[in-house]
Amino acid sequence: MQIAPVIAAAFFELLASKLIPGWVVALAPIEKLRKAKPQSSVSIKGIRALSGDGIFLLLPSIQDGVINARLAFVEDSSCSEVRDVDSGVVCRLRFKECPAPCWIIDGEWVMVDAASIGS
Length: 119
Fold this sequence. Notes:
Layout (H helix, E strand, L loop, with lengths): L4 H12 L5 H6 L2 H7 L12 E4 L2 E9 L2 E9 L6 E4 L5 E3 L9 E9 L9
Antiparallel strand pairs: 1-2, 1-4, 2-3, 3-6, 4-5
Helix pairs in contact: 1-3
């Protein structure tokens, strides 16, 4: 699987800002991210990441109550809340069975309270 340059740029930007939990760094495919990292800066629009206890959703897009994370890290699939790393807005996720720990490209989660974020 290839990682898009914008994903790598967002990951390293958030890492430099100390907004990525240590457990995410331990799970991350660092070499793949380094290879994908663009040489020049990339404009990142929208929500950069949603973070919870055991889940980290990088570059999520939200549509009709569904979050699609360009890159997701799961340490604990029972995590039920995430917050926007920039605004602090919190939303609840519907439980999703998935293997943990893992990282996933284009993972989807359903929101319980879809109106709280990304609207």
